[in-house]
């Protein structure tokens, strides 16, 4: 019997946390939806990835992560939809909420309540991983500052010629450093290619292939997408599919640049030899340094080198026209898939958040409904708990344009039994905070907001879960 009791207590603790913090509920909602966003893309890659070219596979995972980046902003974007029914703005409606208060709940004044613990457990890894990314950016900057510019005329002329061949208008810095073990590129407005000191032993053919590969990364803005992918990994760290997406995006960006080098006219056998040659010359440096740079686009990864060389040598080359045709089809399919997935998830989120009787179309574009941000958990009066008394309190108040409670409007409408739970309900209501209602681009007050506090000696966990959302919205 111990395990069922523990499971029940855990479920009660979690639902209590959701009840106390709508912000926590929103965060969990977004994380769960992020899994739903990535599942279709993972299935497409598993079922049809072998039939797609490298660029199409890269677009698949890039599109998946872009959908993930849009997900938190989806409600705001959907609020900008035009009023397709032509309806005007509906009259302001009062909101009716219901909360369940249990004598067994942890007091809201406890700084270690369930909502605080769960939010801390989620946000702590987020901030730690974001700090690690900032540290990685600083390392990249230090490597750049300590790297020595390459002024050898043959090499700089080669870089200029290849940059013109790829139609790259941005200035590209070329430097050498003893702090890296593989050619890398990074930066957006002023991109940089840094080669290891082993580059002095490279042949002209190897140097050409290396520069072509890194310039392809620069042209495709791969450094920017890499940073975006890592930031999304930090935010959605609980979603295992996010880390799969980050890994696959990085792998496919390398394969795509390999394909671009071959399409520029380089021989597949010569390019494979260049990859192997650079790996051989740099492998000792990797053993000596043991460093890896997450936010640099590293040309060589020992874990994927064998696969890359195999693809270079074994894959049939697609004609340029055929490749472009497949890429266009891939983009069209991905746009339709993204619109469908985000549309379904966006609609689900709006309905679950508002539960209104008035249809969404009756609001003008840009208008937003009031939503609870913080519901203070009332304390169950000790005297009532000891006497075994249950009851309810119906309160009414106005939420001002700042999202706070207008003290003068706060009043008890009715209560059963009279006066037993009134002070507890009023004290909690004073601390409520809301996201203001938006009308015509401005925050407005919402009068006649009504809450019913139900005091139960032993609440059903389902009551706590249901009470986190508005029960109804009436005129």
From TrEMBL:
Print the keywords alphabetically. Answer: Cell inner membrane, Cell membrane, Membrane, Protein transport, Signal-anchor, Transmembrane, Transmembrane helix, Transport
Please give the chief subcellular localization of this protein. membrane
Give membrane topology per the record. Answer: Single-pass membrane protein
- Transmembrane regions: 30-48, 60-78, 112-135, 331-351
Q: Is Kinase included in the keywords of this UniProt record? A: no
An annotated Gene Ontology molecular function: energy transducer activity
Domain of life, per lineage: Bacteria
Q: In which family does this protein belong, per the annotation?
A: Belongs to the TonB family.
Put simply, this protein is called Protein TonB
């Amino acid at each position: 019997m111990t395990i069922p009791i523990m499971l029940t207590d855990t479920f009660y603790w979690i639902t209590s946390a959701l009840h106390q913090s709508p912000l926590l509920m929103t965060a969990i909602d977004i994380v769960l939806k992020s899994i739903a966003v990535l599942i279709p893309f993972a299935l497409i890659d598993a079922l049809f990835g072998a039939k797609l070219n490298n660029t199409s596979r890269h677009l698949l995972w890039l599109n998946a992560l872009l959908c993930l980046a849009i997900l938190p902003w989806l409600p705001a974007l959907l609020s900008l939809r035009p009023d397709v029914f032509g309806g005007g703005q509906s009259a302001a409606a009062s909101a009716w909420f219901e909360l369940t208060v249990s004598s067994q709940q942890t007091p809201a004044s406890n700084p270690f309540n369930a909502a605080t613990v769960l939010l801390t457990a989620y946000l702590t890894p987020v901030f730690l991983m974001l700090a690690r990314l900032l540290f990685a950016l600083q390392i990249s900057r230090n490597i750049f500052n300590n790297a020595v510019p390459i002024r050898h005329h043959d090499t700089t002329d080669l870089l200029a010629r290849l940059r013109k061949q790829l139609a790259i208008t941005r200035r590209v810095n070329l430097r050498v450093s003893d702090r890296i073990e593989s050619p890398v590129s990074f930066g957006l407005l002023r991109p940089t290619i840094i080669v290891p000191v082993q580059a002095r032993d490279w042949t002209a053919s190897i140097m050409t292939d290396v520069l072509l590969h890194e310039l392809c990364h620069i042209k495709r803005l791969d450094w920017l997408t890499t940073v975006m992918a890592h930031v999304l990994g930090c935010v959605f760290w609980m979603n295992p599919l996010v880390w799969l997406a980050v890994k696959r995006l990085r792998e496919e960006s390398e394969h795509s640049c390999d394909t671009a080098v071959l399409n520029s006219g380089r021989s597949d056998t010569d390019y494979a030899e260049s990859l192997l040659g650079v790996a051989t010359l740099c492998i000792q440096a990797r053993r000596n340094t043991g460093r890896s740079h997450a936010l640099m686009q590293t040309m060589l990864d020992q874990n994927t080198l064998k696969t890359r060389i195999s693809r270079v040598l074994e894959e049939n080359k697609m004609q340029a026209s055929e490749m472009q045709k497949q890429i266009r089809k891939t983009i069209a399919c991905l746009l339709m898939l993204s619109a469908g997935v985000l549309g379904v998830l966006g609609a689900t989120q709006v309905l679950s958040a508002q539960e209104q009787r008035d249809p969404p179309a009756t609001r003008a574009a840009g208008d937003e409904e009031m939503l609870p941000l913080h519901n203070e958990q009332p304390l169950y009066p000790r005297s009532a708990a000891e006497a075994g008394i249950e009851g309810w309190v119906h309160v009414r108040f106005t939420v001002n344009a700042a999202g706070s409670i207008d003290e003068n409007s706060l009043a008890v409408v009715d209560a059963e039994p009279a006066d037993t739970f009134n002070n507890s309900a009023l004290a909690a209501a004073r601390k409520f905070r809301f996201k203001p209602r938006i009308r015509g681009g401005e925050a407005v007050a919402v009068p006649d907001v009504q809450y019913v506090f139900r005091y139960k000696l032993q609440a059903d966990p389902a009551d706590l879960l249901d009470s986190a959302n508005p029960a109804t919205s009436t005129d």
